[in-house]
Specification:
The protein has 367 residues and is an alpha/beta fold. It is built from twelve helices and 15 strands. It starts with 10 loop residues before the first strand and ends with a helix.
């Protein structure tokens, strides 16, 4: 039986050969004055879940051809890029996928990234986002590698709904066991990301809050976003965060908390009875483009200036073509300095439908 080939075809934009590099202190800044502080790095395009909002089964079937090992960035290449970026103001790196725990030796990458120091001498903040499927087996190794911050995607507490959402019959008990294992292993910050879609899991929101209240885990509710071209996004599917705030507050009174740092994507709230914190990510109803400080590196070495991008810049070609660190540094500086992206501020149902023809899939670019 022949294997169906579905290549990834995304537009690669030429790295600008001219243009000024703009700085503000240690950081590169873009045309809107936003500093580059964060990089999200996709380490694999593979995932063992088929969540509807990310890798729906009918679009990523068994015959889907993922990238070959030679096409993806090696750990050495990732570390080299990270070091250059950190020397120019980047303070946080989040490892994503696909499912990053499927990348063999991921703990070794975490160890090496943890050795980097930021422009002001502080340890680099390294985090990881996972679906939790391999977390129980990997928790101790991740903690030993120095991982301090972990985010687990979990969109329902009901066992059957959870299986329907991951679409591979994966049991929620194993994900919950992984979260518990991460806490016991000593990973100090564990968060839960809940993508909220109307008609799918809105009845699960209180259940999730109840389960993690007082457990030292921060739940963050995320508005369903129009990432990629395969999830069939509609504006009608979005439940605004303010509605979720009202629902949680009606059961467990909450109050707002100041952000931890400028550009934090989640608005912070805490339970008035002292049982912990929750957050809300509202990129559809309350866009935060004006403070966005992150760039994304795809698994095969393309830089994307926005989660909703339609084109990337091929840095892998420079890495494997003999470019010096100074040349790569200059290229990234020019890419960021020319950045003007603010898609969420101009989004309408019409613009989303038009851009959906070209937008990069979340499983390729990372969340």
């Amino acid at each position: 039986m022949s294997r169906k080939v579905i290549p990834i075809k995304y537009i690669t934009k030429t790295i600008p050969l001219a243009g000024e590099v703009h700085r503000e202190g240690a950081h590169w800044v873009d045309t809107r004055g936003r500093p580059l502080r964060d990089i999200r790095i996709s380490v694999t395009d593979r995932c063992n879940f088929r969540c509807r909002y990310c890798m729906p089964k009918e679009k990523f079937e068994k015959e889907h051809l993922f990238l070959a090992h030679t096409e993806i960035l090696s750990f050495e290449e990732i570390i080299r890029l990270a070091r250059i970026a950190v020397e120019n103001g980047v303070e946080k790196i989040r490892l994503t996928g696909g499912e990053p725990l499927l990348r063999k030796g991921i703990e070794n990458l975490i160890t090496e990234l943890g050795k980097l120091k930021t422009w002001n001498g502080k340890p680099l903040d390294v985090a990881l986002t996972t679906n939790g499927s391999a977390l129980q087996a990997k928790a101790k190794a991740l903690a030993a590698a120095g991982l301090k911050r972990l985010t687990v995607s979990l969109d329902a507490m009901d066992a059957e709904i959870y299986k329907q959402l991951n679409d591979v019959d994966f049991p929620i008990e194993r994900t919950l066991a992984g979260i518990e294992a991460a806490q016991k292993a000593g990973i100090s910050s564990v968060k839960i990301n809940v993508v909220v879609k109307r008609g799918t899991n809105e009845k699960e929101l209180i259940k999730i809050a109840e389960h993690f209240r007082g457990a030292g885990v921060i739940v963050r509710y995320i508005e369903y976003m129009d990432v990629g071209a395969t999830n069939g996004w509609r504006m009608d599917d979005v439940i605004p965060s303010r509605q979720i705030v009202e629902e949680i507050n009606s059961r467990y009174p909450i109050e707002p908390v100041d952000p931890n740092y400028p550009g934090e994507v989640a608005t912070r709230w805490r339970y008035k009875d002292g049982m912990g914190e929750i957050g809300f990510i509202s990129s559809v109803s309350e866009p935060f483009c004006r403070e966005c400080s992150r760039i994304r590196l795809s698994v095969d070495g393309k830089l994307y200036k926005c989660l909703f991008a339609t084109e990337g810049f091929d840095i892998r070609q420079m890495l494997r073509g003999g470019a010096s660190d100074e040349e790569i540094e200059d290229a990234i500086g020019r890419i960021w300095s020319a950045r003007d992206d603010h898609y969420s501020e101009i989004r309408t149902a019409e613009t989303s439908a038009e851009r959906a023809k070209h937008k990069i899939e979340m499983s390729y670019i990372g969340g």
